[in-house]
């Protein structure tokens, strides 16, 4: 099992450009999440999904959109990148059945917006 | 509203000394408690978790944590640290409200010195 994978690992954007981050998991997990990590702030939830075809806003959703067309994939889009979106982005998934609630994380995508 | 407070942003400690990383949380609903570790340039991985039962839980790499409901704390301990324990540690609570959401603390950076 590859677990949770993220594409790309690094990206540099100019202000106003758009991009999509791809997250894939091969563990058949129902829940998937997108977080951003900034120094001294821990992880903040951007959007999450409780199943295929469903998405919901997290703590800091502005400027981002998501889609979950397939159970194993969760896409994060930036329509018009801003310097404030410079961050490390992590995708995670959770198996909530059978009493397991731990999250499995991808390796992260380091995004710089200039 | 739920929140997680990690009381120390950085903890320097000498190799083979004991260490405690402190975590307090607030929640009006039942929570599941987690500690995650993040090594440099990697994603987070589960260290240990408390779902129910015994309040003392043991995790990987010799770490343990104790759930104290009255003090709403979940402190992480290790009796003797190694250089390889140098990493950032995140306390997290998962709640069930319209799905499962996880709230992370800001993180504690553990420096183990020779």
**Gyration radius of chain A, rounded:** 13 Å
The number of helical elements of chain A comes to 0
SSE run of chain A = EEEEEEEEEEE
Distance between the termini of chain A: 36 Å
CA radius of gyration of chain B = 14 Å
The best one-word shape of chain B is globular
Helix content, binned percent of chain B: under 10%
Task: Note the beta-strand portion of chain B.
Answer: over 45%
Quote the average pLDDT of chain A: 93
Q: State the order of secondary-structure elements of chain B, H for helix, E for strand.
A: EEEEEEEEEEEE
Largest sheet data of chain A: 7 strands, mixed
Residue stretches of chain B low in confidence (pLDDT < 50, at least 5 long) are none
Strand-pairing-aware structural class of chain A = mainly beta
Measured as a percent range, the helix fraction of chain A is under 10%
Chain pair with largest interface: A-B, 26 and 24 residues
Describe the overall structure:
- The complex is a heterodimer of chains A (114) and B (114).
- Helices cover 0% and strands 54% of the residues of chain A.
- Chain A has no helices and 11 strands.
- Chain A has strands at residues 4-7, 10-13, 19-25, 31-37, 43-51, 54-57, 64-67, 73-78, 87-94, 103-105, 109-113.
- In chain A, strands 2, 4, 5, 6, 9, 10 and 11 form a 7-stranded mixed β-sheet that branches. A 4-stranded antiparallel β-sheet of chain A has the order 1-3-8-7, with no helix packed on it.
- Chain B is built from no helices and 12 strands.
- In chain B, the strands form 3 sheets. In chain B, strands 2, 5, 6, 10, 11 and 12 form a 6-stranded mixed β-sheet that branches. In chain B, strands 3-9-8-7 form a 4-stranded antiparallel β-sheet, with no helix packed on it.
- Helices cover 0% and strands 57% of the residues of chain B.
- By secondary structure, chain B is an all-beta fold.
- Classes of the chains: A mainly beta (114), B mainly beta (114).
- Chains A and B meet through β4, β5 and β9 of A and β5, β6 and β11 of B.
């Amino acid at each position: 099992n590859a677990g949770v994978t993220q594409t790309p690992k690094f990206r540099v954007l100019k202000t106003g450009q758009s991009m999509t981050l791809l997250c894939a998991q091969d563990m058949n997990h129902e829940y998937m999440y997108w977080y951003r990590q900034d120094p001294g702030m821990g992880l903040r939830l951007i959007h999450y999904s409780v199943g295929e075809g469903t998405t919901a806003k997290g703590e800091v959703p502005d400027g981002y959109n998501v889609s979950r067309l397939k159970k194993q994939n969760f896409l994060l889009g930036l329509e018009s990148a801003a310097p404030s979106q410079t961050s490390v982005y992590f995708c995670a998934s959770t198996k909530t059945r059978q009493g397991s609630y731990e999250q499995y994380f991808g390796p992260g995508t380091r995004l710089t917006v200039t | 509203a739920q929140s997680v407070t990690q009381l120390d942003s950085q903890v320097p400690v000498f190799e083979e000394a004991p260490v405690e990383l402190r975590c307090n949380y607030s929640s009006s609903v039942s929570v599941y408690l987690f500690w995650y570790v993040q090594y440099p340039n990697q994603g987070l991985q589960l260290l240990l978790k408390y779902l129910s039962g015994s309040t003392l839980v043991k995790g990987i790499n010799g770490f343990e944590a104790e759930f104290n409901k009255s003090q709403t704390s979940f402190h992480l301990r290790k009796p003797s640290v190694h250089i390889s324990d140098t990493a950032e540690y995140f306390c997290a609570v998962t709640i069930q409200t319209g799905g499962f959401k996880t709230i992370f603390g800001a993180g504690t950076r553990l420096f183990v010195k020779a």
